């Protein structure tokens, strides 16, 4: 396993704006990438990471919340219900936080590392993370649509 370099908005926004391509086949290389992405996400204290954020334009996402660790290959959101408003950040935009509106509950279909299709339904933070990471695969960054950015003085209070 290896720590990967996280692409930052301030260094290469153009790359983060690119659209990721579907994974055709789960190869050992893809599995190694998943392992490295998990290690990189944990090392950065993040709860989600998309492959584009480590320089790979493939539709691959890892998420870890108190609900567990999830690896999503070619994820497609099939259902969104409810609404939540809360604080959101991104490992590619260190030091920035915003209030966002997201669905309360999200269902996503994806492939696992065995190449098997599965469905995952997440609430609250997991729902927010699924939306955030799937957006990355289409070059969308959470700051594109926020209720408002948090000010530096609010960061000290809230985090
Ligand atoms: Ni992000």
Q: Explain this structure to me?
A:
Helices cover 28% and strands 31% of the residues. The protein has helices at residues 9-16, 28-43, 124-136, 152-158; strands spanning 48-50, 60-65, 68-81, 84-88, 98-102, 105-111, 117-123, 148-149. It has a single domain (9-158), classed as Peptide Deformylase. It is globular, with a radius of gyration of 15 Å. The mean pLDDT is 96. It is of the alpha+beta class. Nickel (II) ion binds at residues 90-92, 132, 136.
**Uncertain parts:** none
Strand order of the largest sheet: 1-2-3-6-7
Strand content: 25-35%
Order of helices and strands: HHEEEEEEEHEH
Structural class: alpha+beta
CATH architecture: Alpha-Beta Complex
Task: Count all strands and give the number.
Answer: 8
Give a short summary of the structure.
The protein has 159 residues and is α+β, with helices and mostly antiparallel strands.
Question: What are the salient characteristics of this protein?
Answer:
binds nickel (II) ion, 31% strand, five-stranded antiparallel sheet, 159 residues, alpha+beta, globular, Peptide Deformylase
Task: Produce the secondary structure layout.
Layout: H1 9-16, H2 28-43, E1 48-50, E2 60-65, E3 68-81, E4 84-88, E5 98-102, E6 105-111, E7 117-123, H3 124-136, E8 148-149, H4 152-158
Antiparallel strand pairs: 1-2, 2-3, 3-6, 4-5, 5-8, 6-7
The protein binds nickel (II) ion (NI).
